[in-house]
Amino acid sequence: MLYLSCDTLDPYFHLALEELLLAAETKEEILLLWRSRSAVICGRYQNIYAEADVLAAKAAGVDVARRLTGGGTVYHDEGNLNYTILTDYDGSGSQYDRFLMPVVRTLRQLGVPAETGRICDITADGKKISGSAQKVSGSRILHHGTLLLHADLTALRRIANGAREEYRSKGVASSPWPVTNLCDYLPGMTMEDFRRAILMGLTAGKDVTTRSLTAEEHQAAQALANTKYRTWDWIYGKNPEYTLTRGDMTLTAKHGVITELNTAPGLIGCRLDPDAPIDAKYF
Known about the structure:
Strand content: 25-35%
Low-confidence stretches: none
CATH class of the largest domain: Alpha Beta
Shape: globular
Radius of gyration: 19 Å
Helix content: 25-40%
Number of strands: 15
């Protein structure tokens, strides 16, 4: 197994790096453990306007991003540890238990009453402590997940708390679940100690090589982050079609562009861009 270390807190960089590693011509198993600054990350096929309060995120300095994998929306900050595993895929369909059980065992060894929840979740005492998603590309599979150690759950609930009912979308909706932090079970544990414990658990019994990203790998990930993952076209332009009903207003949009708006037809064709909002009522 190759453990790649990378200290940047840029969520767009990490999402780009995952895509490049998934496409790389290698059969090596790769592990990443990473954190990001505050960010709300939606799934590939989700309506990001419904899943996250994008204007509140912007006002709070929280990044908004779309990842390569499906699944629901998650919240990242420096109190959350993300893990990514890339390895060979045997063609046998969903493989969540293959990746989740080593994490569950590691958490149990630390004293957390962890167990698998709904398909891709890990819970403790019925509350979610980790969500995950997967993507298959050819003979390779990417699995990544969150581990809430001491994340800001108030910000999570304010900005990313599941699809709002006033939206009707063809996108995949998140399924909200009560969440808690692992620090409730691991009092006094630092993020560095936690990272070390997860690293030991996920590499147990394996021949591990550790290295940092090369300059070329870093440059390639930064370039992809800038040309894809930071862009309006990827974050909002990939949005599925949806209808928003709010009071007497009915707005329909597809790929982030208004296609119908009964109260202001002159805005049809305009982009819904939180960096240059037309009006907050349209978000």
